Amino acid sequence: MSGGGLCPEPALAQPADVRVLTLRVVAEExxxxxxxxxxxxxxxxxxxSDIYERSFQIRFQIQDVMxxxxxxxxxxxxxxxxxxxxxxxxxxxxxxxxAAERCEGLHYGVAHLFGxxxxxxSGCLDTAILSHTGPEVVLSHEIAHLFGxxxxxxxxxxxxxxxxxxxxxxxxxxxxxxxxxxxxxxxxVRGVDEAMRQAWSAIHAEGHAxxxxxxxxxxxxxxxxxxxxxxxxxxxxxxxxxxxxVDPSAARVHSMLGLLLSGQAPAGGRERASCATxxxxxxxxRAPTSGSG
Length: 293
Ligand SMILES: [Zn+2]
Prior knowledge:
Blueprint: E1 19-28, H1 29-32, H2 37-56, E2 58-68, H3 76-86, E3 94-100, E4 109-111, E5 117-122, H4 125-129, H5 135-146, H6 171-180, H7 194-205, H8 215-229, H9 233-246, H10 251-261, H11 270-273, E6 277-278
Parallel strand pairs: 1-2, 1-3, 3-5
Antiparallel strand pairs: 4-5, 4-6
The chain binds zinc ion.
Residues 141, 145, 151, 276, 278, 283 line the site of zinc ion.
């Protein structure tokens, strides 16, 4: 466990080097019911965009804001599944859902490592009174997951990935986001090539939340499960073997491989099995073994 200290604020980026991350934003009906929601949404995205531009030369650009209706009392897992199914990313790099008053326990946000979809909760008791669960923190945290950031170990305490404010990144995750800043979001985890996987794994091995399965192995295995669900068994097997290579100790990956070799499609697509449901304030909290992770 080393190399996890917090980074000082980096120098201003050169404008020519800025990577623009385009966002399709989805706002559900309870978020839209609050007065001034559009200005608040724009403010939240701008705040985090400014942080990412200073830190990583990544600027967010809202491509469009789409209304969405979820209905009353829908569980968070169902909301995420439906968000993937009902709302297309379109031409944007990523899709971010904003919801209000739909928190479940300590789940303030959701994103899948190297995925394209994130969700930000607001308007809950915690997010209203605890500054480190505010929408800027959650958005900063979840977007970092889309770039491959993980929950660091104790040396990363105070980072946005573990209890910290929106503009503090631990050195491990800062290196990962910088390494991945040009990534093509249409390629998913399969676009993370072998050299990047090795670099990611070396950084992850410096220290990470001890109670979570390796999220890169999980993301690759989920990509394999998705292929298996399409009947592409040889490709699925190859990916699940890649996941096992990333984390040879991952019990879930081995059981998926066992199922596949016995001729069955491993259960669990990306929504069911992916890491991680998480929050800026509880970065080290255990992800459920089922559900959105
Ligand atoms: Zn998280």
